[in-house]
Design goal:
With 332 residues, this protein is α/β, with parallel strands linked by helices. Helix content is 39%, strand content 17%. It is built from 12 helices and 10 strands. A 5-stranded mixed beta sheet has the order 2-1-3-10-4, with helices on both faces. A 5-stranded mixed beta sheet has the order 7-6-8-5-9. Helix 4 crosses helix 12 and helix 7 crosses helix 12. It is globular, with a radius of gyration of 20 Å. The two termini are 18 Å apart. 46% of the residues are buried.
């Protein structure tokens, strides 16, 4: 298939109208573990407010703030497939008062960009995994497509006439669809947007036909009938939509794609503080309000140790690098 090229990092600031290094510098003195925390923390989320991981990450921030006796202030730093937010986190003070939510883009970006302003292995210290997001394949309900089989029939009968929305070249919406296309041989055209709200609006409005996105971001539209769900990308059905088949059940054997985000801090944060944050986030995951919200959004909580999250990042980076190369997506 014809490849496309990711935008060069050198033009990201101009493209998105922001500087890559942003935010006031925090104190340069590492926190004393015994006195930690003595002031508010901040959580950097590399997405726009209100969609996808922002929903659950904000809830976890509220819970760990309550547990630790200091508020956790959420700061959204969207743009450039997460690069703006990741770079902010990587170059902040390692004092333990700034942590970040790592979306799937931290795994895919090394294969999409020849040069990044941060290095995942060098600049981040993983704290804990959150949980794998369930991606749902949806279509505009005005279409005569009511199943994956009918989608494939229409795509094969009319190559290149169906289109799908993504939230940026190389983002997870692109990758799940490129995997779908590679396993079925269909031709579906990508229409990139800068954010999910506009993408969803255009699919609902019929200007684009398909949206394959995180359940947390589109479940309200599915339940209201504004989008028609066809299948989920996970290996097992979701408890949030138990009647919806998996893509494997719907006729694409072996299809599975899930993206597990998590929390990290700058690389030189003291180990004692990393483990304190790990314990507090794992504890927050077990609270009823967090567990119920994750379940309602199709997310299975993982938790675990920093080492488990670090290994997950390594393995998934290698896996999706192969998929990205196979899809003809070329870095720049």
């Amino acid at each position: 298939m014809t490849g496309w090229r990711a935008p060069a990092c050198g033009i990201l600031a101009a493209y998105f109208g922001v500087a890559i290094h942003v935010g006031p510098a925090a104190s340069q003195s590492p926190a004393t573990p015994s006195a930690y925390p003595s002031r508010p923390l901040r959580l950097i989320i590399p997405t726009t407010p209100g969609g996808g991981p922002d929903v659950t990450a904000r809830l976890v921030a509220t819970e760990i703030g309550r547990q630790m006796g200091q508020p956790v202030v959420v700061e959204n730093r969207p743009g450039a497939n997460g690069i703006v937010g990741f770079d902010t986190l990587a170059h902040d003070s390692p004092d333990g008062y700034t942590l970040g939510y790592l979306t799937f883009n931290v795994i895919s970006n090394p294969s999409l960009y020849a040069k990044l302003p941060y290095d995942t292995a060098r600049d981040f210290q993983p704290v804990v995994m959150s949980g794998p997001s369930t991606f749902v394949l949806t279509v505009n309900p005005a279409l005569s497509i009511r199943s994956v089989r009918e989608l494939l029939e229409q795509a094969r009968a009319n190559p290149g006439t169906l289109s799908y929305a993504s939230t940026g070249l190389g983002g997870p919406q692109t990758l799940v669809m490129e995997l779908f296309k590679s396993q079925t041989g269909v031709q579906i055209i990508q229409v990139p947007y800068k954010g999910a709200p506009q993408a969803i609006s255009d699919v609902i409005g019929g200007r684009v036909h398909i949206f394959f996105d995180n359940m947390a971001g589109i479940l309200p539209q599915v339940r209201s009938g504004k989008l028609r769900a066809l299948a989920v990308a996970t290996a097992k059905r979701s408890a949030a939509l138990p009647d919806l088949p998996t893509l494997a059940e719907a006729g694409i054997p072996g299809y599975e794609a899930s993206f597990t985000g998590g929390y990290a801090v700058p690389a030189k944060v003291p180990r004692e503080i990393v483990m304190r944050l790990n314990g507090e986030i794992n504890k927050a995951f077990q609270t009823p309000v967090v567990a119920d919200t994750f379940l309602a959004n199709g997310i299975s909580i993982v938790g675990g140790t920093p080492e488990q999250y670090a290994e997950h990042i390594r393995v998934e980076t290698e896996k999706w690098s192969r998929i990205i190369r196979g899809a003809g997506i070329k870095p720049e």
